[in-house]
Each structure stands twice: as C-alpha cells, then as structure tokens.
Amino acid sequence: MRRLLVGLVSCLIAAGSAAAEESEIIKWKDVDGWTVASDTSMEGSCFISSVFDGGVTLRLGFYPKGSESPLYMSFASDDWRSLEVGKEYDLTFRFDKTDPWSASATAAGDASGKFLFVNVTDAEFLTGFVRKRALAIAFEDRVIANLSLRGTGPAADELMKCQRAVDEIIADEGRKSKEKKADPFSAPSEKRSARDPFSL
After folding, report:
1. Vertex 33: Cα angle to 163 and 132 (nearest 5)
2. Is residue 73 within 8 Å of residue 120, measured between CB atoms?
3. Strands 34-39, 25-31: pairing kind
4. pLDDT tens readout for residues 124-142
5. What CATH homologous superfamily does 2-174 map to?
6. Which interval of the chain is the signal sequence (predicted)?
7. Which of 24, 103, 105, 176 yields a CA-CA distance of 20 to 30 A from 88?
8. What is the overall mean pLDDT for the chain?
9. Close Cβ partners of 86 (under 8 Å, ≥ 6 residues apart)
10. What's the predicted TM-score (pTM) here?
C-alpha cells in the first residue's frame, strides 16, 4: 500500500498541479464494507467511501492541508438527476436519535454524474461518525438517505493511517527537493545552460 502511495505522491510532486486535474483513485485498503483510498485531484488526500442499499454512495475525507475546512462529506445517487451544479441545498443530518443539525450542501459534477458535498468544520464530527450507528439525511423534511455506519471505526483508523502515510511521503519528497536545490551541481542552472549549449 505504501509503495502505491509513494508512486502516487512522487508523480504529483514531479508533474505539479497539472497532474492533479484528472482524478485518479489509489486504493489503500478495503475494510468492513468501506474503501479507504487516496485522491490525486486533492493532492493525495485520503478518504473512505461506501455504497449503500438504494444506491447512495457516501464519501468522507480530508481536504489538502491549508484548506479552510479539515474534512468534507459527499453523497451521490444515480436517481438525483435534477441536481443543479453549483446550487446549494439545505439538508438536515442526524446521528441515531441525537438532535439533528442543518448544513448547506453544494451540488457538483457533470453529465456523467452529480453529487452533493458538505464542508465539515467541526473537529468532533469524525468522533460522532465513528461512534454512532446510523446517519439520516433529509431534504425538505423528507429522509433521502438512511445510512448504516457499521464498520466506520476500523475504516476511520485506516483513514488516519493512509493520511499519515501520504503526509510523511510528501514531507520526505519535499526534503529531497530542497536538498537538490541546495546542490548547484545536481542540475545545470538556467545561466549555465545559456552559456553551455551542450548542457541543453
């Protein structure tokens, strides 16, 4: 798994942001009905996802470091064709029988598929996500998804391991890059190339 992520992160760093324009999913592990993976379009950040009865897909993951929100949650269904990309929808969420809370979800995607995503700013959200048994999502007082959270504990553990591995690899590649720049003989500089045509 780490070897796959090393290749993933190395490619991201070598090719720059252009490489991240097309999303590539690198699987870390499958655990208890959840897939743990890394997304190249989000600088290798890790996420967990699962497909539920009724065809609803739920994904919870980390934003790249430095983002305003630490986490995001997205959900999709082939039946939700009327979603308008860019439009916000007021949804209500509820763990088990706890008090519900409201949040605005933004529609994204294209003709091949649309989904809703919510920025998660509450650091305690992941704790509730792991400890509760179900998550109900409602729109205009109608429950549109009632999702079992079975297996979220082990999945969240692997999510953290995946993200730590990505962070370590990025930091290591960053150190190597700085070391290369510090050595003037590791690669010809622009001035040297201009004076020596054979170095081009």
Report:
1. 80
2. yes
3. antiparallel
4. 788 889 999 999 999 999 9
5. Invasion associated locus B (IalB) protein (2.60.40.1880)
6. 1-19
7. 24
8. 83
9. 106, 107, 108
10. 0.76
